[in-house]
Amino acid sequence: MKQILRTTIVRAALLSAALLVTGLTALTLVPESRAGSTTPAAAEAVSSRDVAATGRPAFTGAEGLTVQEAAPIPKDVTDDRRRQRNYPEQPPVIPHSVAGYQLDLNANKCLTCHSREFTGDSQAPMVSVTHFQDRDGQVLGAVSPRRYFCMQCHVPQTDAQPRVQNTFKDMDSVVRQGQGQGQAPGTPAAGGGNN
Amino acid sequence: MRLLRCALGLAKAAWTAFNRPAAHLGIGFLTIGGFVAGVIWWGGFNTVLEATNKEAFCIGCHEMRDNPYADLQKTIHYSNRSGVRATCPDCHVPHKWTDKIARKMQASKEVWGKLFGTVDTPEKFEAKRKELAGHEWARLKANNSLECRNCHSAESMDITRQGARGAAAHQEFLFTGKATCIDCHKGIAHKLPDMTGVPVWTQTAPAH
User: Fold this and answer.
1) B208 touches chain A (CB under 8 A)
2) Contacts of B203 (CB under 8 A, 6+ apart)
3) According to a count of CB atoms within 10 Å of the terminal CB, is the N or C end of chain A lower?
4) Is B163's CB within 8 Å of A118's CB?
5) For chain A, what is the domain count?
């Protein structure tokens, strides 16, 4: 009995010693292997991002085509400031974030602030009464189904820069120009480019 | 009859064995053994309870995976700039033990629903959406949006970092206690049901 006990203890001691040695070896080996592998990889990553220098080919593999880095995603305009409209019929644009707004048959997030009954609390502009008319001109008690999906016409804005400069001139500046007191020809009107 | 008598006999034998003082086992074995068995049982119970409190368990059923979980994946509670994610139990299971057990007992109804296929198609789920959402709104309204406040607290909310409209609304309604989170923030992690007749929301599209 004693013999068996002693051998068991010896075996357990040997096993734990072996485990300790393995663990220590692993610990000392890991940083070395990491250090060895990361340095060249990191250097490679930096250089491959530099598209102009490496001339990395596009996915087509065709000669001369290189990958162009994507422009940063434009930021939403969220300053709550009303924008001047470029013409009287222009739907006003949305100066706040509409991320995650549910707008379907079940729910209309926009109307929780802009519907007549909630504008007192929200201080948001009320949906125009033109939106209460059906297509026969009959005024309904609430927003007409054909005007229900707000973002068909009203859209949020971003700070994205247009690829082509907008030369739109609003009616008033065209009229003033005709009367000889307007802006110099070719100058884009202030506010042009919205929507 | 024979079977009944057999079962009765077994039950009687079990009761006798249960009721009779131990003849061969020492009191030490029984107390220490009982204690150890208790620890194992209690640990096992809580381990299983925790296992049922995992997102993986919740979306183990296709009903949950294809409907509420699919909704969640499109929202800020699933993916955001700081990389914090709310999983199902963070919002739907209370953290305090007694409340948790009460909620779990309530949730046994969901097992029934699973067995009888109450919401086993997207159409059935859609038809039940308002009722199911209503349960959660009522629960969060009753506990003052406790599960929201496990992460979001009014004290640590810096309204100068919020949009002007949000800051104004929080000052007016949240800080004064006029409203609780769920009053305004319905549908922040799942799609909304038909909101006709729900306060704060209006269904202004007239019937066709």
Assistant:
1) yes
2) A107, A108, B194, B195, B196, B197
3) N
4) no
5) 2
Q: What is the pTM of this model?
A: 0.70
- CA distance, residue A71 to nearest chain B CA (Å): 18
**B6 among the known binding-site residues?**
no
Determine the structural domain holding residue A45 and report its residue range: 2-54
CA distance A91 to A150: 10
The amino acid occupying position B112 is: W
Question: Is B170 labelled as part of a ligand binding site?
Answer: no
Which residue of chain B comes nearest to A149, CA vs CA? B205
* A-contacting residues in B 53-82 (Cβ below 8 Å): 75-76
A104 and A40 assigned to the same domain: no
Whether B56 maps to a domain, the answer reads yes
Instruction: Render pLDDT for B129-177 as a digit per residue (tens, 0 to 9).
Output: 999 999 999 999 999 999 999 999 999 999 999 988 889 999 999 999 9
Residue B171 lies in a domain: no
Q: What CATH number does the domain containing B114 carry?
A: 1.10.3820
Q: Could you list the residue range(s) of the whole structural domain that residue B121 is in? A: 34-151
Helix and strand counts by DSSP (H, E) for chain A: 5, 0
